[in-house]
Amino acid sequence: MAEEDDATVRILQSLRGKICEAKNLGPLSGPNRQRDLCTFCTISLDQEEVFRTKVFDKSVSPFYGEDFYFEIPRPFQCLSFYVYAKSVFQRDLPVGKVSIRKDDLAKYSGKEHWCSLHPVDPNSEVQGKVHLEMRLNEVITENGSVGQHLVVRIIECQGLPLISGQNCDPYATVSLVGPASSYSKKSHFQVEEEDIEKLEIKVDLWNNENLAQDVFLGETRVHVKILRNDHIHKAWYLLQPKGNGSKSKSDDLGSLRLKLTYIEDTVLPSAFYTPLCNLLLKSPDVKPISASAAHILGDICRERHEAVLPTVRLLLHHNRFVPFVSAVAALELENTQEANTIFRGNSLATRCIDDMMKIVGKNYLAVTLKPVIDEICESNKTCEIDPVKLKEGDNVVVNKENLQGYVQKVFSSITQSSSSCPPLMCDVFRSLRNLACKRFSADPHVQYSAVSSFVFLRFFAVAVLSPHSFQLRSHHPDPEISRTLTLISKTIQTLGSWGSLSKKMSSFKETYMYDFFKSFQEDKCIEKVKKFLDEISTNVSKESSVLEDAVVLKEGEVQKRAQGRKRLGKKNFKKRWLRLTNRELSYHKHKGKEALCIINVKNIQAVEKLDESAFNRKNMFQVVHCEKLLYVQAGNCVEAGEWLEVLGPVSRCNEGRFSSFHPSNYSGGLWQCCRSPSSSAPGCKPCTT
To answer: Where does the record place the Ras-GAP domain (predicted)?
Structure first.
């Protein structure tokens, strides 16, 4: 948040939900039929795509099962879900769409809905506005009479959509429409005085597609009679669908099951929240803890994202989380009668610790699980061991060996990861262990079950089951891989739980899982689990390893401006693969290729948005570092926000960080934002704090 924004009221928008499945997708027009093509879904804010599922195999009723969450960084009017059929030789073919106006999103909040798909008419998919200037001049005609000369000038366009992820290359055609309609690409017309009342100017905007067919961007119509009183008229006009949006015939295109929650928060200047923050930060010292502000807030708001998550973030930021959660856990243990039921419910203590592990343990998960999860998803070995679900040709012995190999790799990765466990998580686990021992002093196993119930059951097992939810994979795995991960998660959960062998075996309802679990050497597994739990919950103070592996925080395809080139020209922007780890920011020609440039994150001096006017491109940001400015264009507004969100924290504490920046570029001997002639002039806008 920039310093200048600290005194203003802001609106924060976010959207979370799930694209569940489609049903009875209808046939496409032409020779292609839906049943012959693979499909995928996209989410668009107005006409800007911000999310895309992976492609699913041929089916008229595909199950997508993709969760999504993103903050919405700009105003919008309409949220749309598109279903596309994947095409190899041409553009992906739209099957249908579900469009929901922003004002209607509250009706869908928090519940699943089956929504009918409607036709996608390219001529109605418009957004943006155009700035027009119209002049009506008196001229002397060739025969000596006085005539009217109408001149139309297009000053600029704003808010046009990205086409295939890139800025538009627009051009306009201007028509004079009236009793005897005329069409022309010119911008000046001779008009008769008596026709002025009946005429209108129609401006069509198109995107120049070079080799492909040009794309219609929208039209606007203005009556010429507006120039009766004032011979010069300038105004902005919203682009409209062709023919004012005449609706296409709606075939039975099928339906889409969606779950949506749209949240719009009004955020006051930070000073308004100071009394509440101070009250919440005093919570760990309040006795009894149930009378504290944080505990009361957690009890009142049962929805995690309303109160618990923001409270956890606040307490973490001010180093007050451990004393608070220790007090809350102690209160819960007082009301727990049996040692084998500790921390089983969805209590305030378990919700706080769950959220803490997701925030603090994100990199820990990536280091520990991502390599083996990637191997499982990409090698695609069959691991089904349920006799009922075996396919023809499956060998259950081979499948069992595959599954056992994966479980061993995941289990070893976890039990050998104690040195990577964040110190704060260790502090919480140590506190839970001591509290459990104090409450159930006669039970020698409770010191381990108190910790394993979180680190195995609520952290690692959940991440294995749903890697996309923890940013370990970009998409929900396909059904077969998902089934493999489910079997691995079940086994890891049981291996990591603390209890007798007979109790563990009885936790399996399925005979095949019972038989599979018997293949593991229980005693060796118990020793490894015990050693791991001891290492992450003992009193030994542990510092993070300086030599830890680099963790990939974010990567993806972007457009990067070639450094040191001229301001204009498409070829100055090139597709690159941008990759950020906790150590360095690099870009590559393609994913997996050698880095073309590496920037140490310690050398980053600022990361800020760039004005659209700088290069006439949306969703741009700049990375200021020791060498040069790095200008980057993200694929959409959400992606740009995510890059800024992740780049900020890794560089915010760097020495020599700038306090101000230039929101535009330096060209023609001037900074285009403040018109300063010196290329080394200090920034003209405060940096994000």
So the answer is: 303-497
